[in-house]
Amino acid sequence: MPPLPLFKQFIGRALRRSPGRSLVAVLGIAAGVAVMVAIRLANVSVTETFRAAVDAVGGETGVRVRGVAGAFDETRLADLGWLEEFGVVSPVIQTHAMLPPTPEAMAGAGAFPRGELLSVLGVDILRDASVRDYQVLRTGADDRQSATQVLGLLRDTDSIILTEKFLRRHGLQVGGVVPLVFDSTPKPYNIRGVLLDEGPAKTLDGSFALMDIASAQLAAGKAGLIDYLDLRLTASRGVDETVAALNERLPDGLIAETPEASFGRTDSMLSAFQFNLEALSSIALIVGLFLIYNTLSISVAARRNEIGILRAAGASRRQVLGLFLGEAALLTAAGLLVGLPLGRLMASYAVQGAAQTVETFYIAGVAESSAGALALSPIECLLASALVLPLALLAAAAPAWDAAKTAPASAVRPGAGDSKLSPLRLLKWSLLLVVAGAALTWVGPVGGKPVFGFVAELLFMAAGAMLTPLVLQAACHAAPALARPFSPAAGLVARLAGANLLASLSRVSVSTAALAVSLAMMVAIAVMVGSFRETMTYWLESALSADLAIKPVMQSSAVSEARLSKETVEKLTSDEAIADALWITSKQLPVGERSIRLAVTPMAPATRRAGLLFKAPRGGPPADETDWGQSVLVSESLALRRGLAPGDPIDLPTPAGVRSLTVAGVYYDYASNQGTVILDESAYRKFFAEVDPDPTPSNLSLYLHEGADADATRRRLLDSLGPDEQVYCVTNGEIRREAMRIFDSTFTVTYALQAIAILVAGLGVATTLVTTIYQRQREIGLLSLVGATAGKVKQMLLCEAVVLGATSQAIGVVVGLLLAYVLIFVVNVQAFGWTIQFHLPWRFLAVASAIVVATSALFGLYPATRAAGADPLQTVRSF
Amino acid sequence: MPHLHADDVHKWYGETETGYHALRGVSFELEKGEFAALRGPSGCGKSTLLHIAGAMDRSTSGKVTLGGVHLEGLSSRRLAETRRRSIGFVFQQFNLLPTLTAIENVALPLLLDGIPSSRANRKADAALDEVGLASKRQSFPSQLSGGEMQRVAIARAVAIEPELLIADEPTGSLDSENGRRVLELLSRLNRDRNLTILMATHSADAAGYAQSVRHLRDGVLVDGEHTASAAAVGPSETDPSHAAAPAV
């Protein structure tokens, strides 16, 4: 290793002498680290918020008993007295409530205003006190209540206990009243006590409420039902052993599991989404590493003579390698120092987007509280450093090794030529990588994650990089022919530019390849997002066939189970403008390691009117041959995950046991990747009679008579419901706009990455040019000495910038389309189970290509101007 | 036993047979404490021979021995170590690192050899003192004259107490007065330290400071001659170009 004083003198001072170059590299790494850390922190905070909530709400629970299809009839408790042998048993209702949106929020939040969500736990407080840790105060003063006293507080069905944080946030106090919505109607609840910031109250940023179980049953529309029983184990046997023993004895329709299992079901849904987000965020890091590579290349090129002196003075290759790797490490460390806190800052914005997406699709009630759980722990910092530093050293290895190879004689004989490169041999490697990548696209997912899809992407990127010298060579040869028609002088300038680039092909190729890879990723994401958007638009056109859609205000998440009341449905469907109404109700069904969404609807009219797009059989199941009492429809994501096709059997857990039904059709569904089974209303009534004998709609689609005014009808419907009924009543167009808004916000990060890629394309061209100019100072000086004007020199260098930019973009577009193909047909299918129609955004590609070439020229302007302005005599003398 | 011994040294640039044959079987010996000059026209292979003798480059064939050690047999790491510990270099273009002060430039090979900076600085101070530049120790190369820069380069070369000092046209970029002072300095170091010096030069006058002169033409050593010691004779009064050949 080089001695420290030498490192300070040789590297430290050089860095200080060119602060601009160092700053670009530091900021590049900082941006990469920040984006990566922000996405990771956002993901971790969402998951941890949920996990902490599950853990805290679980309390001392060792084992949980639930119905195989979710909630179960409380009368079954009578036969479960033996559970006491295993420990304390506490029945629980777990649900969500919403603090209604304020009038300001209603006015300003578009078609879907929403209030703050609360996680509500309904328990028998006497039993539950030994399972969970509550500290309840009756007033703001320090008078802690015993379980019996708390029971007294909750004796009325409109009593509720809220957390300190929640009360403070909303200016409420004990003895006051809070309006809460469990479905669509706000009801006043009396605040009987305050939960100290301990146990379950600590989670979800205080958005937690405690009710008596009977009150919670009524509020959540679960009269006579229990969501689950929590057991605090007293027996000495282990948890797994107890679960097995309980499952032996539990009657049909009930199952025992650990509280972790319910977390796992949600986490497995979430992980594919989070994995993809993190994979995309790594693009920013690759961009940062590219800048490290470029900075080191410039540093080595500019100091070739000095490195020769060092070598002549006795520096070993290892010492020179150490010096430049040290430079990379220093720049990376500075990038980490800036990037980590910046990432924490960006995470507060990223978490809002990520948590909102997660809440919309996967978990209710995490959006508000996830931001509070953001923390940049030392472990996260170490993890980021442990990932980034080796990668940065890897990126720096090529230029550092190039420096180490410098012959001592180059101190007195500068201008060593470009190393030999065989474009044709690289072409063979490139083809080999394409074949290997293509083969990997056939391999299935690993734990639901498209790992091999991403490896194939990496191989395609490497293939594109290896193709660069050949394409660059062709571009250099073609440039004069393309420029000559403009003027003979332009032809000469292009010939010189081409010859210059060819003379340093291997060096220029690496920078161009890195640039091409950045651009390929930009193109791939643009094509994937564009294709997804087009597919969504087409699907929404078909799926949104109704004129008006109505759902309770509590249904702000795809996993909410809030419903409309019978009275509300009656009022809504009796309007004179309504020609037809289609209803659907949905619930979460735990199936194995995941939850699926069970949607219930009258199937015959639904298949006719709901505008479902069928993947198989094309055109949908034959209406007159399908027995909807025994058949279901499944969404594409579920079909792909489980390998289901029409005619296949599917096991559905119901309160009365597992029912084997037949898949009648597979339909496209881009609303969620959770996986949905649509069951006919009559079959549901039969199978779920025990827990839900009279299902009411969670969503209502209204079809108007020909010529009826949708807006006027909506106003009339809302008037008929009165101010106390809070529902979303939206037109077809509003849903479409909202869906596209959610879509765009989900992909906001990708647009930011596109902007970074274009910026880096420009910086890459500038730094590559600076490198080649350093290497060719003598030639440039000679050119001026033989009569080339400063303008001609500048034109020549600008021409080189354009050739580099255009070559990178050409490779970027071809490789990008290949990457997009894998993202669409492999990664998305494996991670989400979505078939997206490939859509080529010609206009975007044309505009982006023009921008990249123009940006390259723009960024090439500075080094070109600088080189053209140098004193030729000085330059030539200096060698 | 000679201190530096070259035996049938060949050097090809590019492919053998089709490339450029820079040295064509050069053999010579240098005794310990000898100050030898190497003369010949541009492109005759002087610098190539110096680079090989100075462990900066490898011969294509033939043997070079320094202090009994075969340079061809050394790994790249051992060659670097040999340069660091046994060989001092002085070039026409001075080759000082512009970001380092005079004392830091002189201490560079010592630091590379792992010598603690306090000791390296002491040695560098002594070397600068020896070349008469103690007052310029904190100056950067850009603040020094050409002659001063070359004296710093010589201080760097001798700070490691080398067995051999290689000088490639050391006066080529200097005016006559500065050239004379540099040659006198080399001559004094040769005498006081019994330092072996191999110096390439165009100038007959500069060669006059050496004890022996070898002539190289088209990669072949054509003859050798012994001159009187520089201390005794000094530069030729009859050679108008004397030490300061113009920069090329």
Describe the structure.
The complex is a heterodimer of chains A (879) and B (248). Chain A is α+β, with helices and mostly antiparallel strands and 879 residues long. Chain A has 28 helices and 22 strands. In chain A, the strands form three sheets. In chain A, strands 1, 3, 4, 5, 6, 7, 8, 9, 11 and 12 form a ten-stranded mixed beta sheet that branches. In chain A, helix 9 runs parallel beside helix 13 (378-404), helix 11 (317-361) runs antiparallel to helix 13 (378-404) and helix 15 (451-483) crosses helix 16. The two termini of chain A are 30 Å apart. The model of chain A has no long low-confidence stretch (mean pLDDT 81). Chain B has 248 residues and is of the alpha/beta class. Chain B is built from eight helices and ten strands. Chain B has helices at residues 46-53, 76-86, 102-112, 117-130, 146-159, 176-193, 204-207, 230-233; strands at 4-13, 20-30, 35-39, 61-66, 69-70, 87-90, 164-168, 196-201, 212-217, 220-226. A six-stranded mixed beta sheet of chain B has the order 6-7-8-3-9-10, sandwiched between helices. A four-stranded antiparallel beta sheet of chain B has the order 2-1-4-5, covered by helices on one side. In chain B, helix 3 packs across helix 4 (117-130), helix 4 (117-130) packs across helix 5 and helix 5 packs parallel to helix 6 (176-193). Chain B is globular, with a radius of gyration of 17 Å. Residues 228-248 of chain B have low confidence and may be disordered.
What descriptors fit this protein?
heterodimer; A: 879 residues; alpha+beta; 28 helices; elongated; B: 248 residues; alpha/beta; 6-stranded mixed sheet
